[in-house]
């Protein structure tokens, strides 16, 4: 099971998230590309740290909304979704190539992630940009979402994702408007992961996310790892699933 984290979200003098503590604990890093958060220095540092710890590098592409941290829905066109995605992929890839590495995946951020999950048009715009940039990149998606279907239609591999540090209502993630009481700390996180592993509705999940800005994020990742170990699920980066698998 892959464990991923959204990070690289510091900006200028403002430090954000638990990147240094998380890198030794995760297997994939989704690095902000300067739209919702991040800047050139934070991208370069996140890439360096990921390479140092043997962590797969992915682009965390978001809406152009630094003030709202990319968590506010913005009315964008399919062309916007394509252009925003392509622009951010190229920005991060410059640092990755300069460091002698390569990107492995793409994951939309925040509101864009949820919008693409619900909108087939936006999902197709994002997937088309990824395909045109590098068709070997995998897409991180909600299981059964329009983002999953669009990525597969574009010929991209997918990693179906579960959020350990977000509450769920049935099989639906509550991405915004949750409280820390709902998360339940380390015990709640471990219980959510254990419940997911035992639920057929999540049988296709290949990656588990913890956000770097969640309180006590490193402890939550350790709880995820403990829950996986208890269920004898190995932590590691397996090949993403392609269409039809």
Structure description:
The strands form two sheets. Strands 1-2-3-4-5-6-9 form a seven-stranded parallel barrel, surrounded by five helices. The protein is globular and about 40 Å long. Helix 8 (185-197) runs parallel beside helix 9 (217-230). The chain starts with a strand and ends in a 15-residue tail after the last helix. It has one domain (2-230): TIM Barrel, CATH 3.20.20.370. The chain has helices at residues 19-22, 40-52, 78-98, 110-118, 120-133, 146-153, 180-183, 185-197, 217-230; strands spanning 2-7, 28-32, 56-61, 105-108, 138-141, 158-163, 168-169, 172-173, 207-209. The protein is of the alpha/beta class. It has nine helices and nine strands. The mean pLDDT is 96.
CATH architecture: Alpha-Beta Barrel
Q: How widely separated are the two ends?
A: 17 Å
Mean pLDDT across every amino acid position: 96
Question: How large is the count of helical segments?
Answer: 9
CATH level 1 class label: Alpha Beta
Largest sheet: 7 strands, parallel, barrel
- Give the number of DSSP strands: 9
Portion in beta strands: 15-25%
Class by SSE composition: alpha/beta
**Helical content, roughly?**
40-55%
Count of individual domains: 1
Task: Kindly report the spatial arrangement of strands forming the biggest sheet.
Answer: 1-2-3-4-5-6-9
Q: Note the overall shape.
A: globular
Fill in the CATH topology: TIM Barrel
Order of helices and strands: EHEHEHEHHEHEEEHHEH
Uncertain residue ranges:
none
CATH homology-level superfamily: Glycoside hydrolase/deacetylase
Could you tell me the radius of gyration in angstroms?
Answer: 16 Å
